[in-house]
Amino acid sequence: MKFINWWNSKDAISFASTTSQVAVALIGIIALILGIRSSQLQSRQQQQNLFDIANANKEAAKANERTQQLESGTAALEQESSRAKLELENLKQNTAPRKLLDSQKQSIIDYLKTARKRSVRVISLSNSQEAIAYAKDIRSCLNDAGFTDPNNPAPEQITGLTVHTENNNSLVVAYSSEAEVYEDFSKENDYHNILNAFRTLSIPIGTIKSPNIVNPGEVALIISDR
Questions:
Q1: How far apart are CA 172 and CA 151, in angstroms?
Q2: Contact 157, 123 (CB under 8 A)
Q3: 3-state SS assignment for residue 222
Q4: Domain coordinates of the chain in residue numbers?
Q5: Strands 156-157 and 171-175: what pairing?
Q6: Phi, psi dihedrals of residue 67, rounded to the nearest 5°
Q7: Given strand 171-175, what is the order of strands in its sheet?
Q8: Contact present, 6 and 12 (Cβ < 8 Å)
Q9: H runs (alpha helix) in the chain
Q10: Neighbouring C-beta atoms of residue 144, cutoff 10 Å
Q11: What pLDDT tens digit does each residue of the chain (226 aa) get?
Q12: Which residues of 10-26 are buried (b: 16+ CB within 10 A; e: fewer)?
């Protein structure tokens, strides 16, 4: 009954209509405000995401740069380590006692097997144990190859003299004069046979004309300190 009276009341319905319109307007305003705020929050979140992505990219770039620096440093260290190892190996080779390995001795003997046999002197210009031991090695090898020295079955030792070659070789084949070597073909062959027997094994060896040590017609292997 009250509802019917309210429903039939022009003032009541007018008030209700106005109130509804105001409520709808308020809801619309609230919806608009909420929509604007939602957009603001989404925009802020997007900006934050872009900022985070930019920072992440910067950190990634820095990490890549540090990685490249570390890789470059590692490569440089590896190169330095390889260079140091090579220098150490060269130092060991240059300071290790010289000696002929059994395989090297056999190669020299085989190389000289068909060569014309002749007397070859072996002379040490040093009294160091290393040089004398190396001279004994060479003397023994040449003896086994048939290139003996009847006057000196052991290496000769001459001190106070030095020999100089272009490459500062500490092992040289010495002769008395170039004319003597090259005028007599057989002597030239003898000379080169001895020289090449060592060179084929990459053993450093030089040549020198030394008439103050080697007599005419002789060939000698001279060993000096390094």
A1: 21
A2: yes
A3: strand
A4: 2-94, 102-223
A5: unpaired
A6: -65, -45
A7: 156-157, 120-124, 219-223, 171-175, 206-209
A8: yes
A9: 2-7, 10-95, 102-111, 129-144, 178-183, 185-199
A10: 14
A11: 666 665 666 666 677 677 777 777 778 788 888 878 888 878 888 888 888 888 888 888 888 888 888 888 888 878 888 888 877 777 776 778 899 999 999 999 999 998 888 889 999 998 999 999 999 999 999 999 999 998 898 999 988 877 776 666 788 888 766 555 555 545 557 778 888 999 999 888 888 877 778 887 788 899 988 7
A12: eeeeeeeeeeeeeeeee
Residues 6+ apart with CB under 8 A from 127: 157, 159
The Cα–Cα gap between 123 and 129 comes to 14
At 174 the three-state DSSP class reads strand
| Cα Rg of the chain (Å, integer) | 50
Give the Cα-Cα-Cα angle 10, 15, 18 (nearest 5 degrees): 125
Q: How far is CA 93 from the centre of its chain?
A: 17
Largest pairwise CA distance in the chain = 156
Amino acid at 25: A
Phi/psi at 99 (nearest 5 deg)?
-160, 155
- Parallel, antiparallel, or unpaired: how do β-strands 156-157 and 219-223 relate? unpaired
Contact at 8 Å (CB) between 225 and 151?
Answer: no
The encoded tokens of residue 164 equal 């100089």
| Residue closest to 201 by CA, chosen among 225, 222, 171 | 171
